[in-house]
Amino acid sequence: MKLVVAIIKPFKLDDVREALAEVGVQGVTVTEVKGFGRQKGHTELYRGAEYVIDFLPKIKLEVAVADDQLERVLEVIQNAARTGKIGDGKIFVSTLEQVIRIRTGELDHDAL
């Protein structure tokens, strides 16, 4: 089992969610986050004063998937989140040691 964490642009959330649903992903955790990478933020003008916005709004998606679903999930996220411009985001993959469904006590693949 793998945990896929994707950092994407906020306006791409619906596209990614729909694409994941089409390939059978049933559960996604979404968090609003702020951060920067190569974009390094930007400046904004507010009431005549210039402000540097260091941290840009992003969306963090967390998806637990079976090993056999991993490649398809990564492909779907990349295709749905890509704009071709800087700041499209990143995907991180890590191994899940154990998953437990709290309500039923199911373990690992059954808990997904």
**Percent helix range:** 10-25%
Describe the main β-sheet briefly.
4 strands, antiparallel
Reported CATH architecture = 2-Layer Sandwich
Shape: elongated
Cross-sheet strand order for the largest sheet: 2-5-1-6
What is the averaged pLDDT score? 90
What letter string, H or E per element, gives the SSE order?
A: EHEEEEHEH
Description:
By secondary structure, this protein is α+β, with helices and mostly antiparallel strands. The protein has one domain (2-111): Alpha-Beta Plaits (2-Layer Sandwich). The protein has helices at residues 13-22, 70-81, 108-111, and strands spanning 2-8, 29-35, 42-46, 49-53, 56-65, 89-95. Helix 1 (13-22) packs antiparallel against helix 2 (70-81).
What labels would you give this structure?
112 residues; alpha+beta; Alpha-Beta Plaits; four-stranded antiparallel beta sheet; two-stranded antiparallel ribbon; 3 helices; 6 strands
Briefly say what this structure is.
This protein is α+β, with helices and mostly antiparallel strands and 112 residues long. The chain has helices spanning 13-22, 70-81, 108-111, and strands spanning 2-8, 29-35, 42-46, 49-53, 56-65, 89-95.
Walk me through the topology:
Elements: E1 2-8, H1 13-22, E2 29-35, E3 42-46, E4 49-53, E5 56-65, H2 70-81, E6 89-95, H3 108-111
